[in-house]
């Protein structure tokens, strides 16, 4: 269920609030203010009559804008609260008694302005309410013509209705100029407008019929009632539906559907017809005879232009399907009885010429329609472009992004039936002939190896720069690069991933005499590789190392059995024991310190303990990545200014770098600290930084330091919000006090003063607490019963304050005109 809201709440707009704040009795006062601002009729007026003046807002505006000695008289059915300097009358403006009361008040004065803002109690019926209001306006005009001077003004409110033009014609007969306007203070949804009449003609005699509502607003039937023209309905104004005449109701002009279909002209047949009666089942069962057509045929009087067009289209299709065939059959029957006459050669040529001419005319007509369609499309495009250029959406000469494509883009609008869709689906998609293979990543540096040479079948070294002759040799070179060619996992994986096999291309002219298979060649190549001299010596060295290691193990076991300590084992054991004992701070310090130079330790450890590089590779990499980050350097103002000069331009940067090389520069190491400090102080060239730039950075730093912290800003915002709430609350209380009609002005002033005094922020008082002797030595605590701010004082502070005040008074006495003598004891 919807929430019910009060009607009065929606009427309290900004002008309602302004009226409350400025003291006007109604928001309608701003309507008169805006009308006077536009036409200026109150400043030169001495006498003003306000008809239907309650509650008195227009009287207040008139008194404020008119001269001091002016007369303002307000008339209304209800009593008006007194307005300073104005006269209020309780009368009905439609009676003679009201005219007599106005004559008694004004005596011999003539009014310069007559205002009327009256309206009856609305809500019964809009037409009735509008007529009552316009009659009330005519009564106000009648009263105004009796009191207005020549050249006076008449301002009235009018509801727009069918009688508005008649009232406007009456006003134009009595005034020189008539202006109709709607001020912004008037609500947009309201039907009221204001008519300002300037320059009253003051005729000697006015025809009473000119101010009679029955005569002025009489409905005139100057032209007979015209029938609806179905042939050209757009050339006539739409006539308001007023029902049917008695003749139409009695006769009920119906037309049979078969007769309507046989008619030559559908519009002429429908003229003056009330309905179409369905008398033929074929018409009812036709596919074009819809429910909407049947409903339209029941009553033609209520149809609009669109419905009439629909009936004409239905007449055309049904007639072509049902009644044209009958006519052609009737015509063809007598022709069948007569024998066909043979056509002569001339008649045949004439018929061919006629058909050719008809085809030419059809093509010309189609071409003309096509040109017309293109011209219309071009004009529409130009209009859109012109509109975009006016809105600065398109730059002249800029065609925008253009998409370049080899083939036409697929367009869904081009498919109009299922055959085209099937043809579109049957098209084979475009395939890329060969996907480009990604080039293998080569290492930046390649270690030289004297054994990295390939031998051919004749035991000759091959040159790497020469191209390979056969695919077999390519495979062998791949095996050499991968090692001994014993595992082809990587190559097989690549072949599986790509899904392609490299074709074997043997040169047709070169033939090898070696008929061994691949496996045999590979095993023999491995055996040859192991038989090299350098490899044999290396394998012997490894055997010797193993023997030495075995001997050392046996010796160390013998020493341990005798109880002799081994030097290397103790140090390694100590290191192993100390590693897990590191705490969090030690680990953090070690991580921040980074790697240190330990060449001697590494040499010892290499001789005593061997470490596998493959196992420690990950650890080394992780320690390298955890390098300490450089600390942020805080620059002073001169360094910031120098940095801004470095990024200003290439020339400035080059000059600054060149100026850094001077006779004061040195790069000596191992100098005493006192000497380096003295050189930096006395043997340093000043930086070429402008003083203004340095001062600017100093000012920026000061602004950052002066800016208050977040807590201070939040506290100020809370304080401001509290004060705003207090003032808003006080404002509401003041409005209530001002609206109180029972209180006098003095009482209102006292209450307002009390309210605003309460709304002011109270000054926080400081409580002074005298320190005692037994509490002076220690830190003072908040005494019992003391709330808010407090300050601990002692007699010594009081004496010091007194002495300072006395000194100020003495200094003030010395600086006077006479230069007063200092007070104190006279010296003997």
UniProtKB/TrEMBL annotation:
Subcellular location per the Swiss-Prot or TrEMBL entry: Nucleus, Nucleolus
Task: State if Nucleus is listed as a keyword.
Answer: yes
Q: What is the main EC category here?
A: transferase
Q: Which reaction does it catalyse?
A: a ribonucleotide in rRNA + S-adenosyl-L-methionine = a 2'-O-methylribonucleotide in rRNA + S-adenosyl-L-homocysteine + H(+)
Q: Where is the Ribosomal RNA methyltransferase SPB1-like C-terminal domain?
A: 604-808
Q: Where is the DUF3381 domain?
A: 235-388
Q: Which domain of life is it from?
A: Eukaryota
Q: Which Gene3D superfamilies match?
A: Vaccinia Virus protein VP39
Q: Where is the active site?
A: 157 (proton acceptor)
* Binding positions (S-adenosyl-L-methionine): 56, 58, 76, 92, 117
Record PANTHER family: PRE-RRNA 2'-O-RIBOSE RNA METHYLTRANSFERASE FTSJ3 (PTHR10920:SF13), RIBOSOMAL RNA METHYLTRANSFERASE (PTHR10920)
Q: Which family does it belong to?
A: Belongs to the class I-like SAM-binding methyltransferase superfamily. RNA methyltransferase RlmE family. SPB1 subfamily.
> What is this protein's name?
Putative rRNA methyltransferase
The lineage is:
Eukaryota, Metazoa, Ecdysozoa, Arthropoda, Hexapoda
């Amino acid at each position: 269920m919807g929430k019910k809201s009060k009607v009065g709440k929606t009427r309290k707009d900004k002008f309602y609030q302004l009226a409350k704040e400025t003291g006007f009795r109604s928001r309608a006062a701003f309507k008169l203010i805006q009308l006077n601002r536009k036409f200026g009729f109150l400043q030169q007026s001495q006498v003003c009559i306000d008809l239907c003046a309650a509650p008195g807002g227009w009287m207040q505006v008139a008194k404020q804008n008119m001269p001091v000695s002016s007369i303002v008289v307000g008339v209304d059915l209800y009593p008006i609260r007194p307005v300073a300097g104005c006269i209020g009358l309780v009368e009905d403006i439609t009676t003679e008694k009201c005219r007599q009361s106005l004559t008694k008040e004004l005596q011999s004065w003539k009014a310069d302005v007559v205002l009327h803002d009256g309206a009856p109690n609305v809500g019964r019926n809009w037409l009735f309410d509008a007529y009552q209001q316009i009659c009330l306006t005519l009564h106000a005009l009648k009263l105004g013509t009796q009191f207005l001077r020549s050249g006076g003004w008449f301002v009235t409110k009018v509801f727009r209705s069918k009688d508005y033009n008649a009232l406007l014609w009456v006003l134009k007969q009595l005034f020189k100029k008539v202006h109709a306007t709607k001020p912004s203070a008037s609500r947009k949804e309201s039907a009221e407008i204001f008519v300002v009449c300037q320059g009253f003609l003051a005729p000697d005699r006015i025809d009473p019929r000119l101010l009679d509502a029955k005569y002025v607003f009489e409905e005139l039937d100057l032209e007979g009632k015209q029938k609806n023209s179905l042939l050209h309905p757009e050339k006539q104004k739409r006539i308001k539906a007023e029902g049917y005449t008695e003749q139409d109701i009695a006769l009920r002009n119906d037309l049979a559907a078969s007769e309507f279909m046989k008619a030559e002209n559908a519009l002429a047949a429908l003229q003056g017809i009330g309905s179409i009666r369905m008398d033929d089942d074929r018409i009812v069962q036709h596919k074009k005879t819809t429910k909407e057509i049947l409903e339209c045929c029941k009553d033609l009087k209520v149809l609009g232009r669109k419905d009439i067009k629909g009936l004409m289209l239905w007449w055309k299709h049904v007639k072509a399907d049902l009644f044209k065939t009958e006519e052609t059959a009737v015509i063809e029957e007598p022709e069948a009885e007569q024998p066909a006459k043979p056509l002569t050669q001339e008649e045949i040529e004439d018929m061919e010429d006629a058909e050719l001419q008809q085809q030419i005319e059809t093509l010309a007509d189609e071409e003309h329609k096509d040109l017309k369609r293109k011209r219309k499309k071009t004009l529409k495009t130009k209009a859109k472009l012109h509109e975009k250029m006016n809105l600065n959406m398109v730059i002249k000469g800029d065609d925008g992004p253009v998409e370049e494509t080899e083939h036409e883009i697929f367009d869904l609008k081009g498919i109009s039936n299922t055959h085209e869709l099937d043809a579109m689906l049957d098209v084979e998609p475009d395939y890329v002939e060969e996907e480009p293979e990604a080039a293998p990543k080569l290492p930046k540096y390649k270690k030289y190896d004297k054994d990295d040479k390939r031998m051919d079948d004749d035991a000759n070294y091959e040159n790497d720069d020469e191209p390979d002759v056969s695919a077999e040799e390519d495979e062998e070179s791949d095996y050499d690069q991968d090692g001994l060619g014993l595992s082809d996992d990587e190559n097989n994986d690549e072949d599986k991933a790509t899904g392609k096999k490299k074709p074997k291309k043997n040169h047709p002219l070169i033939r090898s005499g070696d008929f061994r298979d691949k496996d045999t060649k590979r095993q023999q190549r491995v055996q040859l590789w192991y038989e090299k001299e350098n490899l044999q010596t290396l394998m012997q060295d490894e055997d010797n190392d193993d023997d030495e290691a075995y001997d050392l193990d046996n010796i160390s076991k013998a020493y341990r059995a005798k109880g002799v300590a081994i030097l290397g084992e103790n140090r390694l054991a100590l290191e192993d024991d100390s590693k897990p004992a590191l705490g969090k701070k030690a680990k953090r310090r070690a991580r921040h310190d980074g790697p240190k130079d330990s060449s001697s330790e590494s040499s010892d450890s290499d001789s005593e303990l061997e470490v596998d590089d493959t196992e420690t590779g990950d650890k080394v990499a992780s320690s390298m990545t955890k390098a300490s980050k450089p600390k942020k350097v805080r620059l002073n103002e001169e360094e910031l200014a120098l940095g801004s000069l470095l990024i200003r331009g290439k020339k400035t940067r080059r000059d600054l770098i060149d100026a850094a090389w001077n006779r004061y520069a040195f790069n000596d190491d191992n100098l005493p600290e006192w000497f380096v400090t003295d050189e930096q102080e006395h043997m340093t060239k000043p930086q070429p930084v402008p003083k203004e730039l340095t001062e600017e950075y100093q000012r920026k730093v000061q602004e950052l330091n002066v800016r208050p912290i977040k807590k201070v800003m939040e506290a100020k915002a809370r304080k401001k919000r509290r004060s705003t709430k207090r003032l808003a609350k006080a404002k509401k209380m003041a409005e209530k006090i001002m609206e109180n009609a029972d209180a006098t002005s003095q009482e209102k002033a006292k209450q307002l003063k009390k309210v605003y005094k309460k709304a002011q922020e109270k000054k926080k008082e400081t409580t002074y607490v005298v320190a005692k002797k037994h509490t002076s030595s220690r830190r003072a605590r908040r005494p019992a019963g003391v709330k808010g701010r407090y300050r601990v004082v002692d007699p010594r502070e009081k004496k010091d304050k007194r002495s300072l005040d006395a000194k100020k008074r003495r200094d003030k006495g010395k600086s006077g005109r006479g230069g007063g003598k200092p007070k104190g004891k006279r010296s003997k």
